Amino acid sequence: MKKRFHSILFVIAIIIISVYLISSGRTGLKDMPYTDLMYSDAGKDMTSQRAVIGSEVIFMKYFSVSDSYCVTYSPLDSSLAGKEENDIEKYYAGWDMIYIDDGKIILEKKIDSCGPQTYIIGTAEMDGDEYVCVYSFDDMGEKSVYSIFDTPVMLFDEQTADTLRSGIMVKGEEALYDALEEYGE
Fold first, then answer.
1. CB 112, CB 66: distance < 8 Å
2. Residues 42-61: pLDDT tens digits?
3. How far apart are CA 137 and CA 119, in angstroms?
4. pTM for the full model?
5. From its phi and psi, is residue 81 left (phi > 0), alpha (psi between -120 and 50) or beta?
6. Is the dihedral angle over the CA atoms 165, 170, 175, 176 positive or is it negative?
7. Which letter does DSSP use for residue 64 in this model?
8. Strand pairing partners for 61?
9. What is the spatial distance between Cα 54 and Cα 37, in angstroms, rounded to a whole number?
10. Are residues 132 and 80 in the same domain?
């Protein structure tokens, strides 16, 4: 129950961030609403920032295909306490450091895939026949089969079958179930 509640809160947060970004025409993590907080230290010499014990590391993954974000928080690894910014960047190779101060480190990574809570309704081949299939994505953008249905694609008209073969992207479980109802699942 608690895990499902956290999943629901996460989805709501992602939806709010996505709606905000789309409505304001913003496209990147550097444009996210927290930037005012990040850059409130204008004029402060940021060239020799060091990590301190108790710092929070914020990992921001941007999934370009689904235009969605996944945000995770972690305490700073104790081995990084007192290290300078360039040492922290080396430790988190593959991530772009967006911001560092005495209590917060924000890292960004762009992933050219779909993010969690994004589904593709498509097709999968089994025993030489095509069936309706749903694919899901993990927090690294890896695609996996979520469910294969026993509905053969050949039962649909050619246009619908082609649409399924191309894939239909939906965000969230509710949208997935609504879309599957259209295809008799």
1. no
2. 444 444 566 677 789 999 99
3. 7
4. 0.65
5. beta
6. positive
7. T
8. 70, 109
9. 18
10. no
Tokens of 93: 């190779």
Cα four-point dihedral sign 57, 58, 61, 62: negative
Q: Convert the pLDDT of each residue in 88-137 to its tens digit.
A: 899 999 999 988 887 889 999 999 999 999 999 999 998 889 999 999 99
Do 114 and 61 form a contact (C-beta atoms < 8 A)?
no
Structure token pair of residue 77 = 């690894």
* SS3 state at 118: strand
Domain boundary among 95, 111, 127: 111
According to DSSP, residue 50 is labeled B
Nearest to 178 by CA among 119, 127, 124: 119
> 101 exposed, middle or buried (CB, 10 Å; 0-12, 13-18, 19+)?
middle
Q: Under DSSP, is residue 119 helix (H, G, I), strand (E, B) or coil? A: strand
Same domain for 40 and 88, yes or no, is yes
Domain boundary among 111, 132, 149: 111
Specify the pairing of strand 129-137 against strand 118-126: antiparallel
Q: How many domains does the chain have?
A: 2
Domain harbouring 37, CATH code: 3.10.20.420
Its domain, for residue 85, covers: 2-111
